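BUG-764 | component: ligand-complex export | severity: low

The export step for 2-acetamido-2-deoxy-beta-D-glucopyranose jobs runs without errors, but we want the raw record kept on the ticket for reference. Input record follows.
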Amino acid sequence: MRPGQLLTQLVSVLSLFLLSECTVASGIRQTFFPPSVPLAVRSPVFNTWLDTRGGQPSVSAVFANDVHITGWAGIARVDQVAYRLWGAPRAVNASTWLGTTVTPTRTIFTLQAGPMVLNVTFLSPIEPTDPVKQSFPGVYVYIDGGATDGKNHSVQLFSDISAEWVSNNLATAIDWSTTSTASAIYHQVQPSTLVHTFQDLPEDVVAWHAIALVGPLRSIHLKLTPLQSNPGRQSLVATDSALDAQLATNTTNLTLTSDLTGTTGLIENNGLFPIFAHLVDLGEVATIPTTSWAVGVVRDPITTFQNTARRSFWWSAYATLADAINAFVLDFDAAQTRALALDEQITTAATAISSQYADLVALGLRQALAGYELTISAAADGAFNTSDLVAFMKDTGNSQRVNPTEGLLGLMPALMYLNASMIGPLIEPLLRFQQTSAAGYDYALPDLGSPYPSAPGNTADNSDVGVENSGNMLILALAHARGTGDGTILGQYYTLFQRYASFTANNTFDPSQQTSDSLEPILQQDVANITNLGVKGIAGLRAMVQIAEAVGDEAGAAEYASLATKMTATWTDWTLFSAGASTSLGWVYRDGSSQGLMYNLYADKLLGLGAFDDSIYEAEANGYSTSNTYGVALSSDSNFMTRSDWTLFVAAALSDVSPTTRDALVAGVHARASNNATNGTFSNLYNVQTGAGVEQGISPNGFATPAQGAMMAVLALSTPNKTISVPSSLMHSSFSSPAPRGEAKGERSLHGLVLQTSGTLQKS
Ligand SMILES: *[C@@H]1O[C@H](CO)[C@@H](O)[C@H](O)[C@H]1NC(C)=O
Ligand SMILES: *[C@@H]1O[C@H](CO)[C@@H](O)[C@H](O)[C@H]1NC(C)=O
Ligand SMILES: *[C@@H]1O[C@H](CO)[C@@H](O)[C@H](O)[C@H]1NC(C)=O
Ligand SMILES: *[C@@H]1O[C@H](CO)[C@@H](O)[C@H](O)[C@H]1NC(C)=O
Ligand SMILES: *[C@@H]1O[C@H](CO)[C@@H](O)[C@H](O)[C@H]1NC(C)=O
Ligand SMILES: *[C@@H]1O[C@H](CO)[C@@H](O)[C@H](O)[C@H]1NC(C)=O
Ligand SMILES: *[C@@H]1O[C@H](CO)[C@@H](O)[C@H](O)[C@H]1NC(C)=O
Ligand SMILES: *[C@@H]1O[C@H](CO)[C@@H](O)[C@H](O)[C@H]1NC(C)=O
Ligand SMILES: *[C@@H]1O[C@H](CO)[C@@H](O)[C@H](O)[C@H]1NC(C)=O
Ligand SMILES: *[C@@H]1O[C@H](CO)[C@@H](O)[C@H](O)[C@H]1NC(C)=O
Ligand SMILES: *[C@@H]1O[C@H](CO)[C@@H](O)[C@H](O)[C@H]1NC(C)=O
Ligand SMILES: *[C@@H]1O[C@H](CO)[C@@H](O)[C@H](O)[C@H]1NC(C)=O
């Protein structure tokens, strides 16, 4: 491009922008600049983002790993000139990006295309009240807007996807088809051979792209071919370059034609990609009526667990994918209304904390929910058992593990706020597996195994992380019960919880226990004796007090409470340091020079466990500097690396005693989340001095992790505290409770429990 041309373009861009300011207000005053924004984020395998750093949205959409392109393009034709709106940098004119808005369910690009200002909205529904809708992996993209000059213009709107959504390998063979339902037309594409093991990109999915049928001729046109059946709309499969050339022609009556024959091919062939497209012709308009498309990626079954295929919950409501897509497309108006209402509710509540907090919630919530896959099983007759709820969470960005307990803990605040019932199915499979596993063990299992989507269960010896995982499970189980009032899980698995509690009481201060969730080499947590693990153990035992009370084991509750009180005293003795009037908490027992994010205090605060009094929280608020641009390091020996999820746990825990510290912690995470000099999807792992994250393709890098559900940690504090009710058949009153393993019935459940608080920790 010659310099003169550039100047002309800049001037024209500027004048268009000024014009838009005067007539159709763009409404954008952008203050939040994430390097990557969510477009379609509903599951571990349906997780597409857009890199914003080039200052224009027509760059390729990418998978959560920030590496693999998931081809998805939007084009607007205005007065016979085609403008790209989002996704692949296709061979048509650029539009001008006026700004980006992120809400909990939506990402909105405001764009100028010739004389029109358009809002392109990517809506990833969050449906906490309806498990059918929540589990169906679909998203909407919709366009509205209008002319800056108030005049009519000829407008056609176009969206397509490529088959890059269904495989990591561009040479993969694919099959496709186009189907009409009562209310929609959709293309679907899948690998010709499904491969059920994969790392990030699924190799066993169906991707689909749909648009609503319109007009009164719907039923008559059902008999016709898809291309003809949709007045004002055209649906076809062709190569990208063939369609770009047609869209770019200066013709008033655009009839798209395909250069492909048959229904099989490769994802990419000699530089050409088959694309699955829908065009809408709006005719002459000054205001663009809301025009929407739907896209989805379906895996079935989600996994096999304990020899049973686990299918997504939505299959209980629809016999076929076609039925489900039809319903999803028909539901667009209502889904949009629900999304706007949920966004309003959450944004209002979060903004009452701070606008920076509201930004973090908006960016983090979709990826949190995308970690949650609710499944059911089929009986022999094929009918679904919708009481058999098991949810799976892939530890996206951090490991390939399924339902790791520390990941569930990060996700938990989002579920606690939205619908605490959703926590139950996440812990159910861990408890169910351990209950029936021959491996036994007196501590909680760390996960269901790996790599996702394989969930064989974990029978390895994980005693060295037993306190961590047992504490997590006791906290999660109580959070579920407190948030719902439903104590069924507490009663059903009470003997397991007793084992976890005994193990926790016995081992919390054992230096061989480490904070397993900090063991990642990047965090450099290779020392033992970490005080934050002590908080986990004590909080876990305090949670057990309430669990025991709920199931009627009053004597057990008293004994757990007495142990916990002693442990808090010991912990405080070894952890709380005073210098003059100032107090602080150490990160390593008996080492006043160490410090770190005591994030396990959050469970105490959230669940009202009463494990630590305000003096401990005040000491924590004093204990570290918030002077680094990107927040507070995990600890004094973490090489300036931190985690955003744990930072938000501390921010929430300190909400009462020091709102100033809370806001400073939020500001650090916000500075990183809004730093477009970094790259990658919203990561929980980075350097607080430089903002640098971990490279793409290196695990762990925290990209798109569901643990960002912790952004909801402050809002979750307002969850109503329900009275827990346990079915009478599952009560464990102190004198009739089944004995734990290895003990004679009738003996006290806490037999043999000895609190080891002396002699084990002697720092020289
Ligand atoms: C990057 O962020 C800065 C604010 O920190 C903003 O001014 C700039 O416009 C952003 N760049 C892009 C391309 O969004
Ligand atoms: C669209 O692109 C063509 C070719 O690059 C260029 O000649 C034309 O001026 C552009 N039109 C507009 C409205 O920018
Ligand atoms: C919460 O979710 C569960 C299952 O996911 C659902 O059955 C229930 O109706 C939801 N509760 C509310 C209050 O929406
Ligand atoms: C476009 O989106 C912006 C930001 O959300 C909003 O202020 C504006 O009203 C929207 N415009 C239209 C036409 O919907
Ligand atoms: C735009 O066209 C519509 C018909 O499509 C017509 O009703 C309307 O009056 C026109 N508006 C303008 C401003 O020309
Ligand atoms: C399209 O063709 C019409 C009629 O030939 C002409 O007036 C108009 O300038 C052309 N538009 C573009 C963008 O080339
Ligand atoms: C375009 O199509 C409209 C409606 O079918 C018709 O009235 C018009 O004559 C066509 N124009 C051209 C240039 O073919
Ligand atoms: C359905 O699942 C629940 C929970 O796992 C189980 O208790 C019940 O027996 C199952 N019902 C049938 C008919 O299999
Ligand atoms: C707890 O420690 C005591 C004393 O060492 C031991 O007898 C008991 O078996 C331990 N319990 C568990 C669950 O490890
Ligand atoms: C919830 O209620 C229990 C039992 O009354 C109480 O111990 C706990 O502190 C309460 N939790 C919160 C967060 O208020
Ligand atoms: C993303 O950031 C990492 C580390 O911060 C860097 O190594 C990598 O080259 C960056 N990638 C891109 C595409 O900018
Ligand atoms: C942890 O405590 C043990 C037992 O007192 C001691 O041997 C070890 O040196 C301590 N480790 C650190 C890193 O302080």
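Assignee comment: Attached the raw record above. The chain has 19 helices and 26 strands.
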